[in-house]
Specification:
This protein is of the alpha/beta class and 306 residues long. It has helices spanning 13-20, 24-51, 60-66, 68-73, 80-89, 167-179, 199-202, 204-212, 229-242, 251-267, 279-285; strands at 128-138, 141-150, 156-162, 191-195, 215-219, 289-290, 302-303. The radius of gyration is 27 Å and the shape is elongated.
Length: 306
């Protein structure tokens, strides 16, 4: 049987371009441009993967800020929207998970204190610390992390990990935070410590440590997360963006990993709430910053020095 062949008329590139109403140069430039974009996208994805070795759940907006020196060095012009598209095409967008476990027991015999920060905005570092306890599952057990965060800079100034919810864990976090203060015994600091009304924070030992260091005591007055929003947010970042991606065998490994994660958070992770700077940058220099996201509860978007 004779093989049937379909014949197609041959069209020269020049005639094809004339039919499309474009020049031969524009035709080539189109494909050069596509090739350049593809090459740039590969470079960007490679750099994003490098950053995410330590910050596995860092969002696109923060990545965009961290990528700026790299983009300038490689003469790559890319907007934030295109970066979203590039990450989406490579399955690199972050999807948030919401989980909640109650670690607070406010039904106890200890004295509960009033909320002193309802209309208070810190103007410098070490004017307001916020505290909370969160859980973390390692292997078949749970451990509990006590965190103390400076509300002005978002820096974690004290932390401790334990396999229990006793007061000793929160006290060690507080001792670390107090040790970070650059002061002499005669200095008078105007510092407020804010927490929920859990047993750990209302205990005699914890309250005494605060009072001995002239730190005012403030506590939430209802279960509304907004009464301790910064502490809740920092808990979520440490767990969801870092710790939950690791498998550790014991409490020693967990403690070492927490130290690494806190250092990454304090020194490398930018915050939109402090102008996409890192907590350490703001904390050490008392920098004036502007929130880059809308807050429906605070009318003044500026947090910094007067």
């Amino acid at each position: 049987m004779q093989e049937m062949k379909t014949l197609y008329p041959k069209v020269s590139l020049g005639r094809f371009c004339r039919l499309l109403g474009v020049t031969r140069q524009a035709y080539y430039q189109h494909f050069w441009y596509k090739e350049q974009l593809s090459f740039e996208d590969e470079l960007i994805v490679s750099e994003v993967l490098r950053i995410r070795k330590n910050h596995r759940h860092m969002g696109t907006r923060k990545l965009y800020e961290l990528l700026q020196p790299f983009l300038i060095a490689h003469q790559i012009k890319i907007g934030r929207d295109r970066l979203f598209d590039v990450l989406s095409a490579n399955n690199l967008l972050v999807r948030r998970k919401k989980r909640q476990t109650i670690t607070t027991n406010s039904f106890h015999r200890f004295k509960k204190y009033s909320n002193l920060i309802r209309d208070f905005t810190p103007k410098a570092s070490n004017q307001l610390w916020v505290s909370d306890i969160t859980y973390w599952k390692i292997k078949a057990n749970f451990v509990y992390i006590s965190l103390i965060t400076d509300a002005f800079s978002r820096k974690i100034v004290g932390y401790h990990l334990a396999n229990h919810l006793q007061t000793s864990g929160t006290i060690q976090a507080l001792q670390m935070a107090i040790a970070s203060l650059d002061k002499t015994p005669d200095d008078q600091i105007q510092l407020i410590h804010h927490s929920d009304r859990g047993t750990q924070y209302c205990s005699n030992e914890y309250v005494k440590l605060l009072q001995n260091n002239n730190i005012d005591i403030s506590m939430t007055e209802n279960p509304d997360p907004l009464e301790n929003a910064i502490a809740e947010r920092v808990n979520g970042i440490i767990k969801e963006e870092y710790l939950n991606d690791y498998q550790v065998e014991n409490i020693q490994e967990a403690t070492e990993l927490l130290e690494t994660v806190v250092n990454l958070y304090n020194n490398e992770r930018p915050h939109m709430s402090i102008g996409n700077l890192t907590p350490n940058q703001v904390h050490q220099n008392n920098l004036i910053t502007e929130k880059l996201w809308k807050n429906y509860y605070i009318k003044n978007p500026i947090i910094g020095l007067q």
